[in-house]
Design goal:
single chain, 73 residues, mainly beta, five-stranded mixed beta barrel, 1 helix, 5 strands
């Protein structure tokens, strides 16, 4: 089973959460829940989801307006 990993601001940062089974978007926040029931709320938005590698890229609310390619490494 391939569960997702969430990264904040850059792909090469350490994941903020792994084994993500559920993601909910509520206004200016992203709620993540792992297969094991751990929950984390990130104030910000989803920038990109790579389904082939099960990765989610997030940006904090204040950084959500930066250029997409400038944030990815």
């Amino acid at each position: 089973m391939c569960l997702a990993k969430a990264y904040l601001n850059r792909w090469n940062n350490k994941p903020v959460l792994q084994d993500i089974a559920r993601m909910r978007l509520h206004g200016n926040q992203v709620e993540l829940e792992t297969l094991f029931g751990e929950e984390k709320v990130i104030p910000g938005r989803v920038v990109e989801i790579d389904f082939s590698t099960s990765k989610i890229l997030l940006a904090h609310s204040g950084e959500a307006n930066r250029g997409r390619h400038g944030n990815l490494s």
